[in-house]
Each structure stands twice: as C-alpha cells, then as structure tokens.
Write a structure and sequence with these properties.
The structure holds two protein chains of two kinds. Chain A is of the alpha+beta class. Chain A has 15 helices and 22 strands. Chain A has helices at residues 18-30, 57-64, 69-76, 112-121, 133-139, 164-177, 224-229, 295-305, 349-362, 372-398, 406-413, 418-430, 443-452, 469-489, 493-499; strands at 9-14, 35-41, 79-81, 83-87, 95-99, 159-161, 181-184, 187-192, 199-204, 209-211, 214-217, 234-236, 245-248, 263-268, 271-277, 282-288, 315-318, 322-324, 328-329, 332-334, 340-341, 459-460. In chain A, helix 1 (18-30) packs parallel to helix 6 (164-177), helix 1 packs parallel to helix 9 and helix 9 runs antiparallel to helix 10 (372-398). Chain A is globular. The termini of chain A are far apart. By secondary structure, chain B is an alpha+beta fold. Residues 103-131 of chain B have low confidence and may be disordered. The chains are: A alpha+beta, B alpha+beta. Chains A and B meet through helix 2, helix 4, helix 9, helix 10 and helix 12 of A and strand 1, helix 9, helix 11 and helix 13 of B. Strand 22 of chain A pairs parallel with strand 1 of chain B, so a sheet runs across the interface. The complex binds flavin-adenine dinucleotide. Flavin-adenine dinucleotide binds at residues 15-20, 40-42, 45-48, 50-54, 164, 186-187, 218-220, 222, 224, 246, 248, 285, 317, 319, 336-338, 344, 347, 349-350, 353 of chain A.
C-alpha cells in the first residue's frame, strides 16, 4: 500500500493570527491529499495585530503559494522595504541602514570592508552605506525590483511592510480556498490520549470537540498547547534582551512626507521605537524594558515622539525574550509567538514562523506517524535559527557608547553569550566575521551593524593597504557613482506603487 | 580607527610537492612584499594530496585566481577533463551510477541575505541532481570546454581536471620562480620553538637557519612541523573509515575518457583514474583479504603499497604553523578528495591570512571551519563504506552521527540536511548517494504533488532538449583535445 492511499493526517491549527493562517495555508497548499487542515480561532481573544515589517524570504512564501504579488500588496496595503534605518543606536545623532544587500565586492580574496576600513582610516572613504545600492535607493526613497542577472542592479533584495491586521485575513481567504476548514470558537480544554499522552482533541467552550493527529500551536503568547498543556520549559533570554513591552500607536502619514521604502528603528532611553510606513498609515510603537520605564511613561513618550496624527490610543503589549526548549514536543508543533519571541528589532518573527513551517513541511509525519528523528531534526533547525537571530539582536544593544540612561548602561556593560563574545573578539582583533551559510544574517549584515554602530576592529587585513590608496579610492568612487546612476534611474517608491495601480489598496 | 595589520614578511612553506608549491604561489600572490621560501623537502611517498593526479572543480577556480592557466595544464601536464565519476556495484547486484558536478558558482551567494524561500543551500530535496548533462556527454564521449562568458548548451556543465603530477608540478615550479618564490633545498635538521606554541626558525642541514613569521606544513602525513608543536593532537578516524591498506599499480597506457571509476569488488574497491597521462589504478584492500587475492584484483603490476591510518589534526593551525593536505588530514584516495581538501584549506588560509602577529580568534576560526570541512570529507568517505554492498565487503559501518542523520533523512524523507563548509554541494552529495546505491525516499511534498505525471514528463522533455543541444554542440572529446 502506498502512502497516497492512506488517510490524510488531520492537522489542527490552534490560532488564526499571522502564524496560524500562514501554517494552515502553507500546509494545505503544499501537502494536498497528505493533510486535512482545520483551524480554530477565537474572535473574543483576537490576534496580536502587530508585526508589519518582514524579510525578503516572505516573497518566497507568497510565490510558492501561487499568490500574485500585486494582489497581495493591494490587499495588505503593503509597501516595499529595502532595509532598516537604525538611528541613535551606537551613539545619539548617528544612523545607518542595514540593507537587504551587500557592500562592494571582494577583491583578490580580501573582503570589501577591509579596503573600506583602510580608506576610511586615511579619510578617503565615504560612509559604508555609500557603497550599497540598497542603502542609496532607500535614502533616496526610490524603488524598483532588483535585476535577475549578475549586474550591480541585482545586488539587493526587498521585502514588504504590510498591515498585520490585514495579512492574516488575506491568508485566511487563501487558506479557505485551499480547503482549510475554519472553526470559530474558544478552546477551553485539551484532551490527552490515555496511551502515550499525545494531544487527542481540543474542546471548545460550546461543547464541540476537534480531534486531530497533529496539532499546530499558533495560539500566540498564550502557547496554550506547548507551553500550557505540555509545559515545555521556557529558555529565558531577558538578561540579554531586557525589552519586554511595546506601546503601539498607529499614525496617519505626515502630509507631503515621502513614502519611505524602509523601516526605521530609533533608539529611545529605555528601548527603541519603530516606524513602519504602510500605504495608508504609519505603524508606530515603542519597544521598552519595563524594568527601566513604566507603561504610562512609554505611552506618553510614544505620543510625544510620533510624527503623524495618532489614529488610536497607545496599546501596550507584553512579552519576554526567549523560546520554548523544543518547539515540537509529542504531536504538538508550535509556530509563531507560541514557540518563542525575539523582539522585532530586525523584523525576524514572521521569518521564524515561516522557517518553522518550511521545516515542518519537509519533515511532515510520514503516513501520520511522528518519528523522533524528524522531530529532533526540526528542533535542531529551529534552535539554530533562533540562536543566530538572538546573537545578532544582542549586538545592536551591546555595540554602543551610549551612557545616557540606565537602560543603555545596562546593555552596554552586560555580559553577552559566549557565542557572541567569540564573534566580537574575532571582529575586534582581526576584522573578520564568523562564517555560516545557513540561518539568517551573513557577513554583510554583521558588518553593517558593527560599522554602523561605530564598533570598528582594531586591525584590518594587511593586504588592504598594499594597493595605492588613490587607485582604491578611484575604484570606490566609481562604484559610488555607478550606484548613484542606478538610483537616479529608479522611480520613486510612491511613484512605483502608483504606476502599477494593481498594487495600490483602495483608499480606505 | 582601525589600522592595517603589519603584513607577514617571511613565510616558509615546508615541502615542495605540488601542494607546497601551489601554496607558495598563493602566498606570494597575496603578499607581494614578503619573502616566500619553499623548503624543498622531497614529497613524502605517502602524501596522497601531493601525488594526486586530479582534484575536483573547486581546484579550477583556485587555479584561476592564482593565475594557473587551465590550458597550460592541458598542454604541458597532459591535462584532461572528467565530467563524472562512475560507481559500479556499490548498491545491489548490477547497480551503478554516475556522480556529476553541480553548478559551482551560485549567483545567490552574492546577495545571500536576499535569498528567497527555498533558495540557497538549504534544501536540495526533490531536485534533479544538477549537471547530469555531464553524464549524457560522458556516455557519448563528447565534450568541449564551454566558451567563457558566452551562453552555450554546455554552460551548466562543470568538470574536474586530471594531469600528470610531474608535469603539473614542473608547471607550478616555473610559475613560482617567475613570481619570485625562493627555493631552499636541504634537509630539516632541527626545529627551533618560539616559546609561544609555534616555531621561530627551522635549521637546514648545511644551509643554516630559516626563520619566518608563518610556517606552512606541506610535508605530508609525517606533518614534520605540526607534530613538533606542544599542542599537537590527532583525531583518529579508523573507527569510521575501515580501510587500512592501499595498493597502487604501475600506471597503464593513457586514455582519453570523460569519466573515472570506482568499482566495488569482493577484495575491496578498485579506482581507475583515466587520462592522457596514464591510467592510474589503485585498490583499497578490504580487511582480511590476502595479498595474493588483492594483487589479482588489482589486475596490473603493483607499484607501491601503503598502510593507512586515517585521521586528522585536531587543530591544523597551531601557533604560527598551518598544516595543509596530508599533514592536516589523511585518508584514502576514494572520491578525489585528497587534493580538493588541501586546496580548500589553502583557500581558507588565503581568505583568513593573518598579519605578522597572529590573533588567537582568527586561528580558532580557521580551525573551526577547517575541521568542519575535514569532518565532512570523512563522512563523504564513510558514506561509501555504508553503501549496501560495501557493508558486505568492509563490515558493518560505524557511522559518524551527522552522517547517520543524513542517511536516515535521505532514505526516509528524501532530503539532506545542509552542512556548513562541506566539500560537496547538496546536489552533488545527493548524486553520490544515488550512485552508491542508496535509495532516496520521497519527501512529503513529492508525495503530495498533484499531477506528478504531467510535470515529470515536462521536466523530462526539457532535459532531453537540453541534452540534444549539448550533444549537437560538443564535438567528440578526442577532436576537441587535438584542436
Ligand atoms: C510589538 C510587536 C511588534 C512586532 N513587530 C514585528 C515585525 O515588525 N515583524 C515581524 O515579523 N514580527 C513582528 N512581531 C511579531 C508578530 O506580530 C508575530 O510573529 C505574528 O503576528 C504572529 O503572531 P501569532 O500568529 O503567533 O499570534 P497571534 O496573532 O496572537 O494569534 C494567536 C491566535 O490564537 C488564537 N487563540 C489564542 N487562544 C485561543 C483559545 N483559547 N481558543 C481559540 N483561539 C485562541 C487567537 O484568537 C489568535 O487567532 C511583533 C510583535 C510584537 C509584540
């Protein structure tokens, strides 16, 4: 008997936020016949409703599900994103863009940043961002999709900024078309199987029971199944990432201000503030550490610093940094906030959910039987993803000279995880990046943050100083010039959106 | 502000085999102001990287960067091209398969952060092994090196080079001379420690003292420099790699062929590396096989026999000494990995080239990455001995955990976990496993795919067209070689 003839695995997704609908639609689309998907969500509880900035990988998800980009952007009021502008992190008054793209190219085995460091020492180089097409385009508020060749115009990527309250519903519509069964109701208890202790069914407030073989816990911070019912231990990372609250307050766009193709993260006395431009409004919020700032103070601060007309009162969200030790335990797989949380400083949360879905689909229980080896492999991959993001986020706080508030004093002087301490030593002493090719954030990202936050190495590669500095300068000038010409030829971000009206949402 | 490091001023490469000389070329190109000295110790007969008559496509790229022209290798070192390695008998009765080379320069790597979902190194699951055009061409005996930078039906076909080691080494020596690499003949008399875990100078019999900032140990399995250091430790691979004896035959009449072969016999594995320079035959002797039986299986007059003690240096960079090739790791010449590994290590050294003062973290990073590659090499070899029929010849394998996990995932789920710093691309390893007779499971997506018949047919048609175009474009290989 072949696998195809077996009964489909009954997948029950608990939760209808971004993670829930991405999981349900992804499984329904990619494993037709292998899985039947039921999703339970409760309007009474609602969704977290934030999470607007993404990473380029999301495009792969959209594409793989056969969703048309234009329709998707229109439905979610999305804009394009080329990177994140970090302000006041290394030092007040300084800013840099961490782009979806690279800086220059290596020459004779030596990475570009060594040449840049050498020229900068001699006062002959512009800011590092001058040598990145993504940064230059972002600064000019221009956008066009990257070329599909090997040219300079191919050296960047892009993501979306979308309305989090519209993305879930969009995926819901798509999921329903793919045959996902949706159940509205409040889960009040969880039934376990007598033999083995797997989750057998969810019981709803109105008495309905939903049986399943595999449960995907997308219940958000509640983590109802993995954290609650199965009591999977929590690994706490708040000693390195002390921010545990956000005060979110959407605003209208400032009339006449250009629509930025990037997210802004501005450091604040007890955390940082995001600004995420959408088509119809500006997402806005203050991520802060409650140990250093009260909720009322944070709400006052976000009101005071918001640039556009507020569209709602500030809403406070609570969270903590860390993750469940295992995201897959028994027949429960947690995806999204139910699995763990890393603050949105680098817009990684939806990416982490997407990766978990990817891995789950690759390791989906064969003939409905969960094999320990597949579960272990899933947990290994999820851990790898989380750990890499974690170190990179901590760097943003630690690489600073700020001593203007107790919060910055704390993060500047705290002891960082050994894995990050090693990376920092390698950079400080030799200007090199610890290399990996799986997971998130490679050399260019680390360099952007190190340099952008003023953490320069003590020494760089000797070979960068061999060539005549004027010749290296000429080469860098040519690169900057070529980037300038590319950018000048790009349409404005807003113009690009309006020129293809299929991408524009109906005026609300 | 960061300052440039003081560059290395003197580098001594110990060992003048083909590896040592290429290392000297690389170092000299990287450090035009430095003195690069090759201490001309005769290559150790057991140095398999130094004796290798071939490598993998990675070496072609390294040669390009170091200014070694492929054409010179072809015309002056009897160079020839390999498109596939064929495996016979490793699976069940009559099973065979070919391992081609996958797309080697991945444009996605240029903006890796922008990798899309499913792109990048992560999942090779469910894809056709890339480069199987290579097999079509090898079957037909047709090939031409694709014209550079032009679109051609062969643009996706990657290949490895073979050569005559003496001719190749002579070519490298000539290049090294032109670049101003200094040759210091002589025997190593003593090693003078620097008191910091490294070496201050080498004493050369009759030629005095050879001090340096950095020493590169290319002395073969003896690892004369590295083993002299207090921090030296060996990691034994003899549990994972059961082969102990290798017999090499006298080279046979050269032949033009686009493939090499590894066949599993009841006496062990028989390697046949073709090429204009001569057919090189070697037998990896299975445990318990008598010398007589082994010689019969070799099928040609023997030239030399080697005892193998597979393993690697725990840390190939200690103090100011970096060991490359057999000095860092030794293992059988089973999948053309000996020189490939050595060249990857050389490339890594050039990437992480230290200044005069070596920083401990950069040494640690080199050792970390180099160890990842060496262990991936070990696991690639171990996969051979875990092949269905090989288990009957070499005994039940004891699998390294990462390989056990990969084989399990391959068999049950049709996927291979990504491995950092591995010498083979995901698709290449997948092709190797298929050639070795491992059965690839079907991943959930493949099982669920709707209308598989239609899309498989379309895929097959597309491939057939590609293959026809490639065959029409490529002349018979012999014709290409006399051009
Ligand atoms: C301040 C902040 C800013 C963020 N910014 C970003 C960003 O810029 N980029 C990014 O990628 N991510 C961001 N995130 C993370 C992002 O919001 C989440 O990863 C994403 O929204 C997924 O959430 P979720 O689906 O896991 O949870 P939720 O949206 O909370 O969904 C939980 C679901 O479970 C249901 N549920 C819960 N309990 C029950 C029950 N008992 N019965 C029935 N249903 C139940 C709820 O009704 C709901 O449908 C941010 C998060 C925060 C807190």
């Amino acid at each position: 008997m072949s696998i195809e003839q077996r009964q489909p695995v009954r997948v029950v997704v608990l939760g209808g936020g971004t993670a829930g609908w991405m999981s349900a639609a992804g499984i329904a689309a990619l494993l037709p016949g292998l899985a039947s998907v039921t999703l339970v969500e409760s309007e009474d509880i609602g969704i977290v409703g934030v999470g607007e900035a993404t990473l380029p990988h999301i495009r792969g998800y959209v594409e793989k599900l056969g969703i048309e980009e234009a329709a998707f952007m229109r439905a979610t009021h999305a804009t394009y994103k080329l990177g994140i502008d970090f302000r006041d992190f290394g030092r007040i008054g300084e800013s840099y863009i961490h782009p979806f793209g690279s800086f220059g190219e290596k020459v004779a085995e030596v990475a570009f940043h060594h040449y840049w460091l050498e020229l900068a020492r001699q006062g002959l180089a512009g800011p590092l961002g001058d040598y990145s097409l993504a940064v230059a385009a972002a600064r000019a508020n221009r956008f066009t999709p990257p070329a599909q060749d090997q040219s300079l115009a191919s050296t960047y990527g892009y993501a979306y900024q979308f309305d989090a309250t519209l993305f879930g519903p969009f995926m819901r519509e798509h999921g329903l078309k793919l045959g996902v069964e949706r159940i509205e109701g409040l889960v009040t208890s969880v039934e376990r199987e007598a033999a083995g202790g797997d989750v057998g069914a969810l019981a709803l407030e109105d008495g309905r029971r939903i049986e399943g073989d595999l449960f995907i816990d997308c219940s958000g911070f509640r983590s109802l199944l993995l954290g609650g019912e199965l009591a999977e231990p929590w690994e706490d990372w708040s000693r390195w990432l002390p921010c545990d609250r956000a005060a979110a307050m959407p605003c209208a766009h400032v009339p006449g201000a250009p629509l930025r193709p990037y997210t802004t993260a501005a450091a604040m006395p007890a955390g940082w503030r995001w600004q995420i431009p959408l088509q119809h409004r500006m997402g806005n919020g203050y991520v802060f550490a409650s140990g250093f700032l009260s909720e009322d103070e944070a709400c006052a601060a976000i009101r005071a610093s918001a640039e556009g007309e507020p569209l709602a009162d500030p809403r406070v969200l609570r969270f903590r940094a860390g993750r469940r030790r295992n995201s897959w335990q028994r027949n429960v797989v947690a995806v999204g906030l139910a699995s763990g949380f890393l603050e949105p400083l680098e817009s990684t949360s939806i990416y982490l959910a997407q990766m978990a879905i990817t891995y789950l689909i690759e390791l989906f229980p064969e003939a409905g039987r969960i094999d320990d080896r597949d579960r272990d492999e899933f947990n290994r991959l999820v851990d790898m993803e989380y750990d890499r993001v974690r170190d990179f986020l901590i760097l943003h706080y630690h690489a600073t000279t700020r001593d203007d508030s107790p919060f910055w004093d704390h993060v500047r002087t705290m002891e960082v995880p050994a894995s990050l301490a090693d990376k920092l030593e390698l950079w400080r002493r030799a200007g090199r990046i610890e290399k990996y090719s799986d997971g998130l954030f490679y050399d260019a990202s680390w360099i952007a943050v190190y340099v952008g936050q003023g953490l320069l190495p003590q020494r760089h590669d000797a070979r960068a100083a061999f060539a005549d500095p004027m010749r290296v300068k000429a080469a860098l000038d040519r690169l900057r010039q070529a980037i300038g010409e590319e950018v000048a030829a790009m349409p404005g971000h807003e113009a690009f959106l309006t020129s293809e009206t299929t991408r524009l949402a109906d005026p609300a | 502000m960061s300052a440039a490091r003081d560059p290395l001023q003197r580098v001594v490469v110990a060992g003048a085999g083909q590896l040592g000389v290429l290392a000297a070329i690389g170092l000299r190109r990287a450090l035009p102001g430095a003195e690069v000295v090759v201490l001309g110790l005769a290559p150790d007969p057991g140095a398999l990287a130094d004796r290798a008559a071939t490598a993998l496509p990675f070496t072609n790229r390294l040669h390009d960067r170091l200014g070694i022209a492929e054409n010179d290798i072809v015309t002056r070192a009897q160079g020839s091209h390999r498109l596939v390695t064929r495996y016979f008998g490793w699976g069940e009765e009559g099973q065979g398969g070919a391992m081609p080379y996958g797309a080697s320069i991945d444009p996605a790597l240029r903006t890796r952060f922008a990798q899309e979902w499913g792109g990048g190194p992560r999942n090779a699951a469910g894809q056709m092994p890339a480069g199987s055009l290579g097999e079509v061409l090898a079957d037909a005996g047709r090939f031409a090196v694709p014209p550079e930078g032009e679109p051609s039906p062969l643009a996706e076909v990657d290949y490895a080079l073979r050569w005559h080691p003496d001719g190749y080494r002579a070519l490298l020596i000539e290049t090294a001379r032109k670049l101003g690499v200094i040759h210091a003949p002589g025997e190593l008399a003593a090693i003078e420690p620097d008191g910091a875990g490294g070496i201050a100078a080498l004493s050369i019999a009759g030629a005095g003292r050879l001090p340096a900032d950095l020493f590169v140990d290319c002395t073969g399995p003896a690892a004369l420099l590295l083993t002299a250091l207090p921090g030296f430790a060996l990691e034994d691979w003899s549990v994972e790699l059961p082969l102990r004896r290798l017999i090499v035959a006298r080279p046979q009449q050269g032949m033009l062929a686009l493939e090499d072969r590894f066949s599993l016999l009841s006496e062990g594995w028989l390697g046949e590396v073709a090429g204009r320079a001569g057919l090189q035959i070697a037998l990896g002797v299975a445990p318990g096989v008598t010398e007589d039986a082994a010689l019969r299986a070799l099928g040609a007059p023997p030239l030399a026999g080697f005892q193998l003690e597979p393993g690697r240096a725990r840390a190939p960079w200690l103090g100011n000494v970096v060991a490359l090739g057999d000095a860092a790791a030794r293992f059988e010449p089973l999948a053309h990995l000996n020189l490939d590994l050595a060249h990857r290590q050389l490339d890594l050294l050039l990437e992480l080239l230290p200044g005069r003062a070596i920083e401990p973290p950069e040494r640690a990073e080199y050792n970390r990455r180099s160890a990842l590659t060496m262990d991936a090499v070990r696991d690639t070899l171990a996969a051979h001995y875990a092949a269905p029929a090989a288990q009957r010849v070499f005994g039940l394998p004891i699998l390294p955990p990462a390989l056990a996990g990969a084989l399990d995932q391959f068999a049950r789920r049709g996927r291979l976990p990504f491995r950092e710093e591995a010498p083979l691309l995901g698709q290449e390893f997948q092709a190797l496993l298929a050639a070795l007779g491992f059965t690839q499971g079907r991943g959930p997506q493949a099982v669920a795919a709707q209308g598989p018949a239609a899309s498989a047919a379309a895929e097959a048609l597309r491939f057939r067209r590609q293959a026809e175009a490639a065959l029409a474009f490529a002349p018979p290989y012999a014709e290409f070689m006399v051009r």
